[in-house]
Backbone:
């Protein structure tokens, strides 16, 4: 059975954050969310149908304020991206960029990525991005970490051969934790790489750099 389709509640990997939208953003959100969002629940998706073309599809889990997703979408028009985030202001910001750019290669899901995964076909993703995941440092909170064996297994199921799981974190302990978890997934191979120049600097990374932390990029490819 698919590990993440076992019935909730599984541990949520995010802190619910309540921040309202400005009246303008709220209007953008109301107008654009129905057009560019995918329902969290429903039948298995056919990405060619969703995007109207055959293209590599990347899954961006927890895009936060959206800066990284927007920069990547602008730089890689040939790639389709499904961004998942539970923080509405970030969703609204990306919707605004989608409209401004006249893009048809971005879709959003405003939900827990784990609730959406059952809609993603096995072997369908060219990449999964987990950039600066919430670290959940306290012992009794660590079960909430997004990078955990069942989630990595479920994401690996959905990567195509040669597809990439890219985790970036500036918490050394989370980097070591990720290495340990991924070592248990024999279909993934890789490890730390130099920080890719093309990875946009987001607010979270900037904050870490200001606090003297150095990001680690972990890059794993799905084996046949
Ligand atoms: C520390 S922020 C990093 C945001 C962004 N990736 C960046 O680099 O700026 C982590 C984000 O992941 C989101 N998140 C955590 N778990 C999630 C999940 N299971 N599904 C969707 N979003 C999630 C949180 O809401 C939060 O916005």
Residues:
């Amino acid at each position: 059975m698919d590990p993440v389709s076992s019935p909730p509640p599984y541990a949520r990997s995010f802190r619910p954050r309540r921040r309202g939208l400005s009246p303008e953003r709220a209007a953008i959100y109301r107008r654009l969310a129905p057009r560019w969002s995918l329902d969290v629940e429903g039948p298995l998706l056919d990405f060619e149908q969703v995007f109207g073309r055959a293209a590599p599809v990347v899954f961006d889990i927890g895009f936060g304020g959206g800066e990284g997703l927007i920069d990547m979408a602008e730089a890689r028009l040939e790639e389709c991206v499904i961004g998942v985030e539970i923080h509405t202001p970030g969703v609204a910001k990306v919707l605004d960029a989608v409209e401004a750019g006249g893009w048809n290669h971005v879709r959003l899901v405003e939900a827990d990525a784990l609730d959406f995964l059952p809609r993603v076909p096995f072997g369908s993703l060219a990449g999964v991005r987990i950039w600066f995941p919430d670290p959940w440092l306290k012992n009794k909170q660590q079960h909430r970490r997004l990078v955990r064996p069942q989630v990595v297994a479920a994401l690996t199921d959905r990567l195509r051969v040669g597809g990439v799981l890219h985790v970036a974190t500036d918490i050394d302990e989370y980097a070591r934790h990720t290495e340990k978890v991924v070592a248990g997934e024999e279909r993934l191979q890789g490890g730390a790489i130099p920080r890719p120049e093309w990875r946009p600097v987001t607010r979270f990374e900037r904050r870490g750099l200001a606090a003297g932390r150095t990001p680690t990029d972990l890059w794993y490819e799905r084996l046949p």
Summary: The longest helix spans residues 23-36. Residues 13-14, 61-64, 68, 84-87, 112-114, 131-134, 146, 202-204 surround S-adenosylmethionine (CB under 6 Å).
